[in-house]
Design the sequence.
């Protein structure tokens, strides 16, 4: 593998033209999530939200990045991942109607001109509980702390530490089995970005790469109101909290520029 140094493959460093194309895809992602906010209300089905998103993405000459995404023999059938309440990520849109008090995580990816954008947000449906509001606020704030950790001299675990410490100080837990990632011509690239500092035995799986200008990354805390344990739905995609507690998910794509992170998916 062609490496910039002993930790970073050269492909992880994007050219200015590549960053421009990634930013274009990210803009469509962010605008899609903003558009959907007005439709997240009691009575709407998750399939309706998915159709609105796909129509908008295609109107901007993009393609839904998740539709047809394949993991082994599994193929994701929808444009969005829509995860409600105890569903953490990878929920498949369908005929489920949102009801007052739900929280719903919308994860959106776009492919345009051969480059990807990726972002996620959690919205409340109607009037939500103070506990759920706090879960969402802590998750979003942990993302902000993770982004702030991207600076000269820092590395991947500085994001991990910033997210984990804030979430756990507030009494919540984090998904351990899924993480953030690099972004470019592929939806998931180097580096993997865990939302917790890995134990020593697992650090080879998550290289603690230092940040270099023109790296593009998607940072995405997934936070549980209860314990960290997960289960997988019978659809083989949807990831749920094992104890049935609610979960929130926020994600931004960022580029390292002038020794700090610039958010490409600002809403």
Sequence:
């Amino acid at each position: 593998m062609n490496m910039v140094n002993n930790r970073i493959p050269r492909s992880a460093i994007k050219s200015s033209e590549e960053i421009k194309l990634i930013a274009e895809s990210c803009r469509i992602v962010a605008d899609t999530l903003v558009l959907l906010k007005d439709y997240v209300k009691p009575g709407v089905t998750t399939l309706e939200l998915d159709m609105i998103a796909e129509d908008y993405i295609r109107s901007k000459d993009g393609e839904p990045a998740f539709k047809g995404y394949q993991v082994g023999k599994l193929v994701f059938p929808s444009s969005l991942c829509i995860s409600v309440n105890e569903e953490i990520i990878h929920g498949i849109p369908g005929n489920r109607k949102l009801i007052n008090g739900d929280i719903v995580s919308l994860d959106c990816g776009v492919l345009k001109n051969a480059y990807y954008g990726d972002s996620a947000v959690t919205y409340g449906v109607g009037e939500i509980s103070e506990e759920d509001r706090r879960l969402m606020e802590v998750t979003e704030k942990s993302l902000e702390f993770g982004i702030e950790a991207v600076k000269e001299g820092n590395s991947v675990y500085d994001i991990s530490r910033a997210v984990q410490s804030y979430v756990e100080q507030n009494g919540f837990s984090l998904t351990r089995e899924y993480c953030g990632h690099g972004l470019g011509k592929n939806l998931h690239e180097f580096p993997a970005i865990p939302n917790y500092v890995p134990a020593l035995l697992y650090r080879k799986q998550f290289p603690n790469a230092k940040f270099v200008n023109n790296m593009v990354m998607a940072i995405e805390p997934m936070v549980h109101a209860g314990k960290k344990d997960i289960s997988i739905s019978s659809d083989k995609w949807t990831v749920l909290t094992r104890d049935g507690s609610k979960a929130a998910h926020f994600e931004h794509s960022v580029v390292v520029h002038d020794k700090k992170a610039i958010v490409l998916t600002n809403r």
Remarks:
- The helical segments are 16-37, 46-59, 130-148, 156-169.
- Residues 63 and 111 are 5 Å apart (CA to CA).
- The chain has a mean pLDDT of 96.
- The longest strand covers residues 103-112.
